[in-house]
């Protein structure tokens, strides 16, 4: 069964560094998303992406963040100048154009900023 | 701004008994999802509810949606240990945007003998 994959599974970085989190959405999906979940808290929407541009973004998704689809398969989240409070699990999701727009989530990348 | 409230936040279940988790949301939407999350794992899709009165069932779980009351319920029948997990409802605010899922805080379910 097709699934969303994410790499790395765990990323440790120092405060102020830049990180890139990578996702491979399900191959025939057209809509891509990033969410984050701080430990023990709810899942928060960051950004949605369709047709090579951002569709929606939350207040969390400020100039520190950017997304890109560098090729036909990858979808990346870049976090510049990381802060301690960026430590969280980051989930990528994708959906197709069916009426349900059901989002399928990847396994997540745990980002630890020290 | 869309608010999604789940209750209870923690539910201790006895095996064999029935329980309900509630999900209230603050603005009009006709697209609601239920997810399960095991500790340290990703979100597993349980149900997609797309219209008023929608009811879906899978095994011991049944979800329903009342868009007029802005309420969804997840009913667990005859709880068993492997249902222990955190359950999230998520609402898609389809009136002004789509795909921007707003999650509830989650209900942590622990099933004991």
Q: Which terms would index this structure?
A:
heterodimer; A: 114 residues; mainly beta; Immunoglobulin-like; seven-stranded mixed β-sheet; four-stranded antiparallel β-sheet; 0% helix; B: 113 residues; 11 strands; globular
Mean pLDDT of chain B: 92
Query: Would you tell me the overall average pLDDT of chain A?
Result: 93
Mind describing the biggest β-sheet of chain A? 7 strands, mixed
Helical content class of chain B = under 10%
Q: List the quaternary state of the chains.
A: heterodimer
Biggest sheet statistics of chain B:
6 strands, mixed
Report the largest inter-chain contact: A-B, 24 and 23 residues
Distance separating the two termini of chain A? 37 Å
Point out poorly predicted stretches of chain A.
none
**Quick one: overall form of chain B?**
globular
Kindly describe this structure.
The complex is a heterodimer of chains A (114) and B (113). By secondary structure, chain A is mainly β. Chain A contains no helices and eleven strands. Chain B is globular and about 45 Å long. Chain B has one domain (4-112): Immunoglobulins (Immunoglobulin-like, Sandwich), CATH 2.60.40.10. In chain B, a hairpin with a 4-residue loop joins strand 7 (61-66) and strand 8. The mean pLDDT of chain B is 92. Chain A binds chain B through residues 31, 33, 35, 41-45, 48, 55-56, 58, 91, 95, 99-108, and chain B through 31, 33, 35, 41-45, 48, 50, 88, 90, 92, 97-106.
Task: Provide the fold topology.
The complex is a heterodimer of chains A (114) and B (113).
Chain A: E1 5-7, E2 10-13, E3 19-24, E4 31-37, E5 43-50, E6 53-57, E7 65-68, E8 75-79, E9 88-95, E10 104-105, E11 109-113
Chain B: E1 4-7, E2 10-14, E3 19-25, E4 32-37, E5 43-49, E6 55-58, E7 61-66, E8 71-76, E9 85-91, E10 102-103, E11 107-112
Parallel strand pairs in B: 2-11
Antiparallel strand pairs in B: 1-3, 3-8, 4-5, 4-9, 6-7, 7-8, 9-10, 9-11
């Amino acid at each position: 069964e097709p699934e969303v994959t994410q790499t790395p599974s765990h990323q440790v970085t120092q405060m102020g560094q830049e990180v890139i989190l990578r996702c491979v959405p399900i191959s025939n999906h057209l809509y891509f998303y990033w969410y984050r979940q701080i430990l023990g808290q709810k899942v928060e929407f960051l950004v949605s992406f369709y047709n090579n541009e951002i569709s929606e973004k939350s207040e969390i998704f400020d100039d520190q963040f950017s997304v890109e689809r560098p090729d036909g398969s990858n979808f990346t989240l870049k976090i510049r100048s990381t802060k301690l409070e960026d430590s969280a699990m980051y989930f990528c999701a994708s959906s197709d154009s069916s009426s349900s727009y059901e989002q399928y989530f990847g396994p997540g990348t745990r980002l630890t900023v020290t | 701004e869309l608010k999604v409230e789940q209750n209870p936040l923690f539910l201790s279940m006895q095996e064999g008994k029935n329980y309900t988790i509630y999900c209230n949301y603050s603005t009009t939407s006709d697209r609601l999802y239920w997810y399960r999350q095991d500790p340290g794992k990703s979100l597993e899709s349980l149900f997609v509810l797309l219209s008023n009165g929608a009811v879906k069932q899978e095994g011991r779980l049944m979800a329903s949606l009342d868009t007029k009351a802005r309420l969804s319920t997840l009913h667990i029948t005859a709880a068993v240990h492997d249902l222990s997990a955190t359950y999230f409802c998520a609402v898609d605010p389809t009136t002004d945007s789509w795909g921007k899922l707003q999650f509830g805080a989650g209900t942590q379910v622990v099933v004991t003998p």
